[in-house]
Amino acid sequence: MATARFLFFYLCCIALQAQEEWSLQKCIRQALAENLNIRLSEANVRAAEIDLTASKWLRSPNLSANLNSGVSIGTNINPATNTLITQDILFGNTGLTGSATIWQGGQISQTIRQNRKTLAAGENDLRQAQNDLALLVANQYLTVLLSEERKVIAESNLRTTANNLEQINKLFSAGSRPEADVLEGRAQLARAEQSLIQADNALELAWLALKQSLRLPPDAPMRLERLTEDQFTRLSGSAYTVDDLVAYSRENMPSMKAASLRLDAARVGEKIARSAYYPRVFAAFGLSTRYSDAAIQPTSFGLGIDTIPARIDGQAVLIEAFTPKITGTEVIPLKTQLDRFLGYSFSVGLNVPLFNQMQTRANVGRAKLQTLRSQISLDQQADRIRQDITQAMTQVRAARKEYDASLKSRDLAKLSYDMTRRRFDLGATSLFDLNQSQLNLQVAENNLIIARYDLVFKTQVLEFYAGKEIKL
Fold first, then answer.
1. Which end of the chain has a smaller Cβ tally under 10 Å, C or N?
2. For the domain bounded by 19-60+104-278+353-465, which CATH number is listed?
3. What contacts 333, CB < 8 A, 6 or more positions away?
């Protein structure tokens, strides 16, 4: 028997060790690393970085190379002599071209500036999403702790109710209590069992919500760090003013920074749209060369006899003369042709916009509307922050009052239960009165636990607006 108890104790210790203890900070880190919305925000930031890098490269020239070859059949131009020949030739052309914008109404510089602000706005969106997720995890973390304590209360109430029923059964067997007390005791025990089932279900759902936010399997073993009395006292003792929190949040909240940066980017967008009204000054250059198998060069020479008509003393005669002749030819080598036919070109151009179906004007109008929308979004965000802070401050004050009232109610319910219990033990009151007093105590304890964790979370929200890290 002793060996069995030792084995059971040993297995329980192993099970507790297998359940890794998680702090709130560890849960938040896990959620930030695994949350898909956070990953999407990170991808949006990387996309904005790419856009910024691409806009910076607009200042550099663009280059392109071309190469083509083929066969030309029929009458062609000899590339070496520029004369017409009736010959099929094999040809090839290659070249390098490039152009660069010298000035375009400041469009490139403004585009870089706009993309830089868009990137900064995206980074602040990412930080805001991380903060929102941290608040969600903190709420779910506290909900699990609250549900665990409510389950402990339900278990304690069930044990007390079971002991009461056992005592009533003994008194009924001795003839000291009526059968109605036994039936009331059984009904109270059933209600206590139901309360425990409800508490256990609530705890299971709270665990499921937290594990889903952490992207952990539902059966993953976890054990949370509990909130100490010192932490509770420290969190509930914070004091702020609405104006101070609003002023700080408008300067430092990532959502406000993102909205302000998008307003700046929209204003830059107006300048980009107006730049289309200005002329565009650009430079271009080119390099080209070619090859053809019709380009030949002599390889050997000789003498030939040519008959030349002439007149001597009025008589027509034919004179034979030796003249140099090309006796051998070859196609000019590829390298030689590429070097011989190499050419360069440079140019500077001016493109003056005259009329483009009012598209530039329409784009400027759209940019102005985007600025207006961004300004409205910024004002909405500022109003939302003031409303949220005012509501959070009101909720904290209400939660403190609720906690104080719940604490007082619990203490009075405990005194009432202890007095009713003594009277019941003396036979001066009924089991119904004892059960009612016990039920009132359980409700008061549950209300106190709920008020306590509600105050903790709402105080944490207030400290979040004060720029403090979300932690317990």
1. N
2. 1.20.1600.10
3. none
